[in-house]
Design brief:
single chain; four-stranded mixed β-sheet; three-stranded antiparallel β-sheet; 11 strands; about 15% strand; globular
Length: about 300
Amino acid sequence: MIRLDGGTFAMGSDRFYPEEAPVRQVRVDPFWIDETPVTNAEFARFVAETGHVTFAEIAPDPRDYPGMSPDMARAGSLVFEPTPGPVDLRSLAWWSFRFGADWRHPLGPGSSLDGLEDHPVVHVAHADAAAYARWAGKDLPTEAEFEFAARGGLKAADYAWGDEFEPDGRPQANYWQGPFPHGNSLADGWLRTSPVRSFAPNGHGLHDMIGNVWEWTEDWYGPPRIEQKRPGHCCVPANPRGATRAASMDRKGPSGKTPRKVLKGGSHLCAESYCRRYRPAARHPQPIDTTTSHVGFRCVVRGEP
Protein backbone atom coordinates (compact mmCIF):
# COMPACT_ATOMS: atom_id res chain seq x y z
CA MET A 1 0.00 0.00 0.00
CA ILE A 2 1.01 3.63 -0.44
CA ARG A 3 0.30 6.31 2.15
CA LEU A 4 -1.30 9.55 0.94
CA ASP A 5 -1.24 12.62 3.15
CA GLY A 6 -4.71 13.72 2.10
CA GLY A 7 -5.57 17.35 1.54
CA THR A 8 -7.90 19.64 -0.36
CA PHE A 9 -8.53 19.19 -4.08
CA ALA A 10 -10.95 20.17 -6.85
CA MET A 11 -13.30 17.19 -7.24
CA GLY A 12 -15.37 16.64 -10.37
CA SER A 13 -15.31 18.21 -13.82
CA ASP A 14 -17.37 20.70 -15.81
CA ARG A 15 -15.82 19.65 -19.13
CA PHE A 16 -17.17 16.17 -19.88
CA TYR A 17 -20.31 14.46 -18.51
CA PRO A 18 -23.06 16.18 -16.46
CA GLU A 19 -22.92 13.68 -13.59
CA GLU A 20 -19.37 14.83 -12.82
CA ALA A 21 -20.35 18.48 -12.28
CA PRO A 22 -19.94 20.82 -10.59
CA VAL A 23 -16.30 21.14 -9.67
CA ARG A 24 -16.16 21.55 -5.89
CA GLN A 25 -13.46 21.83 -3.26
CA VAL A 26 -13.31 18.89 -0.85
CA ARG A 27 -10.81 17.55 1.65
CA VAL A 28 -9.80 14.01 2.52
CA ASP A 29 -7.85 12.84 5.55
CA PRO A 30 -4.64 10.79 5.27
CA PHE A 31 -5.11 7.18 4.14
CA TRP A 32 -3.28 4.20 2.68
CA ILE A 33 -4.35 2.73 -0.66
CA ASP A 34 -3.44 -0.43 -2.54
CA GLU A 35 -0.81 0.20 -5.18
CA THR A 36 -2.81 -1.86 -7.70
CA PRO A 37 -6.28 -3.35 -8.07
CA VAL A 38 -6.73 -6.67 -6.28
CA THR A 39 -5.40 -9.41 -8.56
CA ASN A 40 -6.72 -12.87 -9.32
CA ALA A 41 -3.88 -14.38 -7.27
CA GLU A 42 -4.72 -12.22 -4.25
CA PHE A 43 -8.43 -12.96 -4.52
CA ALA A 44 -7.68 -16.68 -4.82
CA ARG A 45 -5.85 -16.59 -1.48
CA PHE A 46 -8.87 -14.92 0.11
CA VAL A 47 -11.22 -17.58 -1.26
CA ALA A 48 -8.89 -20.40 -0.22
CA GLU A 49 -8.75 -19.12 3.37
CA THR A 50 -12.41 -18.20 3.77
CA GLY A 51 -14.37 -20.41 1.37
CA HIS A 52 -16.11 -17.28 0.07
CA VAL A 53 -18.59 -17.91 -2.75
CA THR A 54 -19.04 -14.91 -5.01
CA PHE A 55 -22.32 -13.43 -6.15
CA ALA A 56 -21.76 -14.62 -9.74
CA GLU A 57 -21.41 -18.21 -8.52
CA ILE A 58 -24.87 -18.26 -6.93
CA ALA A 59 -28.00 -18.83 -9.00
CA PRO A 60 -30.43 -15.91 -8.67
CA ASP A 61 -33.79 -16.39 -7.00
CA PRO A 62 -36.54 -15.56 -9.55
CA ARG A 63 -38.61 -14.13 -6.70
CA ASP A 64 -36.07 -11.32 -6.41
CA TYR A 65 -36.39 -10.47 -10.11
CA PRO A 66 -40.00 -10.14 -11.23
CA GLY A 67 -40.49 -11.42 -14.75
CA MET A 68 -37.35 -13.55 -14.79
CA SER A 69 -37.72 -16.78 -16.74
CA PRO A 70 -36.94 -19.86 -14.63
CA ASP A 71 -34.51 -20.86 -17.39
CA MET A 72 -32.41 -17.81 -16.50
CA ALA A 73 -32.12 -18.74 -12.82
CA ARG A 74 -28.58 -20.02 -13.25
CA ALA A 75 -25.29 -18.65 -11.96
CA GLY A 76 -23.36 -16.46 -14.37
CA SER A 77 -22.15 -12.98 -15.19
CA LEU A 78 -21.94 -10.39 -17.97
CA VAL A 79 -19.06 -10.86 -20.43
CA PHE A 80 -17.94 -8.36 -23.05
CA GLU A 81 -17.72 -9.61 -26.63
CA PRO A 82 -16.70 -7.36 -29.54
CA THR A 83 -19.42 -7.01 -32.17
CA PRO A 84 -18.81 -7.95 -35.83
CA GLY A 85 -19.39 -4.38 -36.91
CA PRO A 86 -20.92 -1.05 -35.90
CA VAL A 87 -24.01 -1.18 -33.69
CA ASP A 88 -26.38 1.29 -32.07
CA LEU A 89 -24.40 2.42 -29.03
CA ARG A 90 -27.63 2.53 -27.03
CA SER A 91 -28.16 -1.20 -27.55
CA LEU A 92 -25.43 -2.61 -25.24
CA ALA A 93 -25.17 -5.40 -27.81
CA TRP A 94 -21.59 -6.12 -26.72
CA TRP A 95 -22.74 -7.62 -23.40
CA SER A 96 -23.64 -11.29 -23.08
CA PHE A 97 -24.90 -12.92 -19.88
CA ARG A 98 -22.92 -16.15 -19.77
CA PHE A 99 -23.92 -19.01 -17.52
CA GLY A 100 -20.86 -20.20 -15.65
CA ALA A 101 -18.89 -16.97 -16.02
CA ASP A 102 -17.30 -15.95 -12.71
CA TRP A 103 -13.99 -14.79 -11.30
CA ARG A 104 -12.38 -18.18 -11.93
CA HIS A 105 -13.84 -18.43 -15.45
CA PRO A 106 -13.74 -14.84 -16.76
CA LEU A 107 -15.00 -15.73 -20.26
CA GLY A 108 -17.38 -18.48 -19.14
CA PRO A 109 -17.12 -22.28 -19.02
CA GLY A 110 -13.87 -23.56 -20.45
CA SER A 111 -11.93 -20.40 -19.61
CA SER A 112 -9.53 -20.17 -16.69
CA LEU A 113 -7.08 -17.90 -14.90
CA ASP A 114 -4.03 -19.47 -16.52
CA GLY A 115 -1.70 -16.59 -17.33
CA LEU A 116 -4.04 -14.08 -15.64
CA GLU A 117 -2.76 -14.37 -12.08
CA ASP A 118 -1.51 -10.76 -12.05
CA HIS A 119 -4.57 -9.34 -13.84
CA PRO A 120 -7.32 -7.62 -11.80
CA VAL A 121 -10.00 -9.94 -10.47
CA VAL A 122 -13.34 -9.35 -12.22
CA HIS A 123 -16.93 -10.65 -11.99
CA VAL A 124 -17.06 -9.48 -8.36
CA ALA A 125 -20.10 -7.78 -6.86
CA HIS A 126 -19.83 -5.01 -4.30
CA ALA A 127 -20.49 -7.53 -1.52
CA ASP A 128 -17.58 -9.67 -2.73
CA ALA A 129 -15.23 -6.68 -2.71
CA ALA A 130 -16.41 -5.66 0.75
CA ALA A 131 -15.89 -9.22 2.04
CA TYR A 132 -12.33 -9.25 0.73
CA ALA A 133 -11.65 -5.87 2.33
CA ARG A 134 -12.89 -7.09 5.73
CA TRP A 135 -10.72 -10.21 5.47
CA ALA A 136 -7.69 -8.06 4.65
CA GLY A 137 -8.40 -5.64 7.52
CA LYS A 138 -9.13 -2.86 5.07
CA ASP A 139 -12.05 -0.93 3.55
CA LEU A 140 -13.23 0.10 0.12
CA PRO A 141 -12.39 3.69 -0.81
CA THR A 142 -14.92 6.46 -0.87
CA GLU A 143 -15.45 8.24 -4.18
CA ALA A 144 -13.52 11.26 -2.90
CA GLU A 145 -10.59 9.13 -1.72
CA PHE A 146 -10.41 7.33 -5.05
CA GLU A 147 -10.50 10.52 -7.07
CA PHE A 148 -7.89 12.20 -4.85
CA ALA A 149 -5.60 9.19 -5.33
CA ALA A 150 -6.28 8.93 -9.07
CA ARG A 151 -5.30 12.55 -9.69
CA GLY A 152 -1.76 11.74 -8.57
CA GLY A 153 -1.16 15.19 -7.13
CA LEU A 154 -1.99 17.07 -10.35
CA LYS A 155 -4.17 20.15 -9.99
CA ALA A 156 -7.36 20.19 -12.11
CA ALA A 157 -5.84 18.13 -14.95
CA ASP A 158 -8.30 16.29 -17.18
CA TYR A 159 -6.31 13.06 -17.07
CA ALA A 160 -4.27 11.33 -14.39
CA TRP A 161 -1.11 12.10 -16.40
CA GLY A 162 -1.92 15.69 -17.42
CA ASP A 163 -4.13 17.57 -19.87
CA GLU A 164 -3.02 15.79 -23.05
CA PHE A 165 -4.96 12.60 -23.82
CA GLU A 166 -2.17 10.65 -25.53
CA PRO A 167 1.21 12.33 -25.13
CA ASP A 168 3.40 11.54 -28.16
CA GLY A 169 0.51 9.45 -29.48
CA ARG A 170 0.98 6.76 -26.82
CA PRO A 171 -1.85 5.38 -24.64
CA GLN A 172 -1.15 5.95 -20.96
CA ALA A 173 -3.57 3.32 -19.68
CA ASN A 174 -5.56 0.29 -20.79
CA TYR A 175 -8.59 1.67 -22.64
CA TRP A 176 -10.20 1.04 -26.04
CA GLN A 177 -8.52 2.49 -29.13
CA GLY A 178 -10.62 2.74 -32.28
CA PRO A 179 -14.36 2.55 -33.02
CA PHE A 180 -16.23 0.87 -30.18
CA PRO A 181 -17.30 -1.95 -29.81
CA HIS A 182 -15.90 -3.62 -32.92
CA GLY A 183 -12.64 -2.00 -33.99
CA ASN A 184 -10.02 -2.05 -31.24
CA SER A 185 -6.62 -1.29 -32.79
CA LEU A 186 -4.89 -2.72 -29.70
CA ALA A 187 -2.49 0.24 -29.67
CA ASP A 188 -2.08 -0.32 -25.93
CA GLY A 189 -1.50 -4.05 -26.46
CA TRP A 190 -4.66 -5.35 -24.77
CA LEU A 191 -8.20 -6.27 -25.78
CA ARG A 192 -9.32 -7.15 -22.26
CA THR A 193 -7.61 -6.76 -18.88
CA SER A 194 -3.86 -6.29 -18.55
CA PRO A 195 -1.36 -7.15 -15.79
CA VAL A 196 -1.69 -4.56 -13.05
CA ARG A 197 1.71 -2.92 -13.59
CA SER A 198 1.62 -2.74 -17.38
CA PHE A 199 1.49 1.06 -17.42
CA ALA A 200 3.48 3.72 -15.61
CA PRO A 201 2.20 4.73 -12.15
CA ASN A 202 0.67 8.11 -11.50
CA GLY A 203 2.30 10.82 -9.41
CA HIS A 204 1.45 8.97 -6.21
CA GLY A 205 3.05 5.74 -7.42
CA LEU A 206 -0.32 4.05 -7.99
CA HIS A 207 -1.02 1.77 -10.95
CA ASP A 208 -4.25 1.41 -12.93
CA MET A 209 -6.18 4.13 -11.14
CA ILE A 210 -7.35 4.84 -14.69
CA GLY A 211 -8.33 2.15 -17.18
CA ASN A 212 -8.01 -1.65 -17.03
CA VAL A 213 -11.06 -2.18 -14.77
CA TRP A 214 -13.68 0.02 -13.19
CA GLU A 215 -13.36 -0.11 -9.40
CA TRP A 216 -16.00 -0.31 -6.69
CA THR A 217 -16.22 2.44 -4.08
CA GLU A 218 -18.15 2.51 -0.84
CA ASP A 219 -20.40 5.42 -1.86
CA TRP A 220 -23.99 5.10 -3.05
CA TYR A 221 -24.54 6.70 -6.45
CA GLY A 222 -26.41 9.98 -6.81
CA PRO A 223 -25.83 13.59 -7.81
CA PRO A 224 -22.67 15.04 -6.26
CA ARG A 225 -23.48 16.22 -2.78
CA ILE A 226 -22.74 19.91 -2.51
CA GLU A 227 -22.29 21.00 1.08
CA GLN A 228 -22.91 24.68 1.47
CA LYS A 229 -20.57 26.61 3.70
CA ARG A 230 -22.21 28.33 6.63
CA PRO A 231 -21.71 32.11 6.81
CA GLY A 232 -18.27 32.72 8.21
CA HIS A 233 -17.32 29.04 7.95
CA CYS A 234 -13.72 28.77 6.77
CA CYS A 235 -13.33 25.17 5.75
CA VAL A 236 -14.19 22.99 2.77
CA PRO A 237 -16.22 19.80 3.32
CA ALA A 238 -14.10 17.03 4.82
CA ASN A 239 -14.38 13.40 3.72
CA PRO A 240 -17.67 13.89 1.82
CA ARG A 241 -19.83 10.85 1.17
CA GLY A 242 -22.24 10.00 -1.63
CA ALA A 243 -26.00 9.72 -1.81
CA THR A 244 -28.19 7.67 0.50
CA ARG A 245 -29.04 4.07 -0.39
CA ALA A 246 -32.62 5.10 -1.14
CA ALA A 247 -31.50 7.86 -3.48
CA SER A 248 -29.26 5.40 -5.34
CA MET A 249 -32.13 3.16 -6.45
CA ASP A 250 -32.30 2.59 -10.21
CA ARG A 251 -35.89 3.54 -10.97
CA LYS A 252 -35.48 2.17 -14.50
CA GLY A 253 -34.72 -1.38 -13.33
CA PRO A 254 -37.17 -4.29 -13.48
CA SER A 255 -38.35 -3.70 -9.92
CA GLY A 256 -37.19 -0.11 -9.40
CA LYS A 257 -35.42 -1.29 -6.25
CA THR A 258 -31.83 -1.89 -7.32
CA PRO A 259 -29.37 0.20 -5.26
CA ARG A 260 -26.23 1.34 -7.04
CA LYS A 261 -22.70 2.13 -5.91
CA VAL A 262 -20.22 4.49 -7.57
CA LEU A 263 -17.58 3.00 -9.85
CA LYS A 264 -14.44 5.01 -10.56
CA GLY A 265 -11.48 4.92 -12.91
CA GLY A 266 -12.91 3.67 -16.20
CA SER A 267 -11.94 0.37 -17.83
CA HIS A 268 -10.45 -1.24 -20.93
CA LEU A 269 -13.83 -0.62 -22.60
CA CYS A 270 -13.78 3.17 -22.26
CA ALA A 271 -13.32 4.65 -25.72
CA GLU A 272 -13.01 8.11 -27.23
CA SER A 273 -15.86 7.15 -29.57
CA TYR A 274 -18.19 5.98 -26.79
CA CYS A 275 -17.25 6.45 -23.13
CA ARG A 276 -14.57 8.98 -22.30
CA ARG A 277 -14.44 7.96 -18.66
CA TYR A 278 -10.72 7.20 -18.46
CA ARG A 279 -10.34 10.22 -16.16
CA PRO A 280 -10.18 10.80 -12.37
CA ALA A 281 -13.44 12.81 -12.33
CA ALA A 282 -15.43 10.15 -14.19
CA ARG A 283 -18.04 8.16 -12.28
CA HIS A 284 -20.55 5.47 -13.15
CA PRO A 285 -23.51 3.85 -11.32
CA GLN A 286 -23.31 0.08 -10.90
CA PRO A 287 -26.14 -2.03 -9.42
CA ILE A 288 -24.81 -3.99 -6.46
CA ASP A 289 -26.36 -7.17 -7.89
CA THR A 290 -24.59 -6.96 -11.26
CA THR A 291 -21.17 -8.43 -12.06
CA THR A 292 -19.20 -7.98 -15.27
CA SER A 293 -15.89 -8.76 -16.94
CA HIS A 294 -14.62 -5.18 -16.52
CA VAL A 295 -15.24 -4.33 -12.85
CA GLY A 296 -12.77 -4.94 -10.00
CA PHE A 297 -11.63 -3.10 -6.88
CA ARG A 298 -8.82 -2.05 -4.56
CA CYS A 299 -8.76 -1.27 -0.84
CA VAL A 300 -7.78 1.47 1.59
CA VAL A 301 -6.81 1.80 5.22
CA ARG A 302 -7.64 5.05 6.97
CA GLY A 303 -5.20 6.43 9.50
CA GLU A 304 -2.40 3.98 10.28
CA PRO A 305 -2.60 0.25 9.35
